């Protein structure tokens, strides 16, 4: 689940294109991407298109905030075919989850402010599957410029809170520069290295760079195989640890890393 593509729920053409794309997850958006006068249309268009479409990628739905006047109508429009989770925007406290919990689907909480970030461990309660980091809103909230350094603390904090709260690894925020494929891939690779599981996207052409960035590299796969081979050789000799030819020490955490790399690559030991 590396590529999470946002698509406005009121735009039938874009919605059908997204559902037919190579995205791992499509986030049908009834919130920020939909003007106030189009909220009803978004519900109707989404329902019709999803009824007519097979569930190729995973489909999740971003509703309006539970304190927003549009949320009750969002609730009435559910359930929708193929929707497997509800994305809640701008979550800043555990209490915000209660109205959405009644929908009966797993919740994905968007952390988009300093307050939400510092309450992330409290928010990671029953029914929450994972976090999405709303990088642009968070940047605005703290008055920062868009840069890796400005967002590094928040990203690392959210990864740690996810792990401590027993959630799946979080999903990183969008990259707003649509024509900068190299920059997108570099940012996504950095976020993968921090512990994120995937990244949200604004356009289908961002799918391929993000999938590449979150996939193990050829060098990582080669290293992982070398680690497992060395460790198994050590075990045959009755030793609990091993060392690579370059002097790298191998113990169980390194072995677990190697196994995960090969799992992600679709390989085996």
Describe the structure.
By secondary structure, the chain is α/β, with parallel strands linked by helices. The protein folds into 2 domains: 3-214, Phosphoenolpyruvate-binding domains (TIM Barrel); 218-265, no CATH class. 45% of the residues lie in helices and 16% in strands. The chain has helices spanning 12-19, 39-52, 71-76, 98-101, 114-118, 120-123, 135-142, 148-164, 181-194, 207-214, 218-236, 252-265, and strands at residues 3-8, 25-29, 58-62, 83-88, 107-111, 128-133, 171-172, 198-201, 242-243, 249-250. The strands form 2 sheets. An 8-stranded parallel β-sheet has the order 6-5-4-3-2-1-8-7. It has a two-stranded antiparallel sheet with strand order 9-10. β4, α4 and β5 (107-111) form a beta-alpha-beta unit.
What would you call the shape?
A: elongated
Compute the CA-based radius of gyration.
Answer: 20 Å
Helix amount: 40-55%
- Domains (count): 2
In percent terms, what proportion of residues is strand?
Answer: 15-25%
Spell out the blueprint of helices and strands.
Blueprint: E1 3-8, H1 12-19, E2 25-29, H2 39-52, E3 58-62, H3 71-76, E4 83-88, H4 98-101, E5 107-111, H5 114-118, H6 120-123, E6 128-133, H7 135-142, H8 148-164, E7 171-172, H9 181-194, E8 198-201, H10 207-214, H11 218-236, E9 242-243, E10 249-250, H12 252-265
Parallel strand pairs: 1-2, 1-8, 2-3, 3-4, 4-5, 5-6, 7-8
Antiparallel strand pairs: 9-10
Helix pairs in contact: 9-10, 11-12
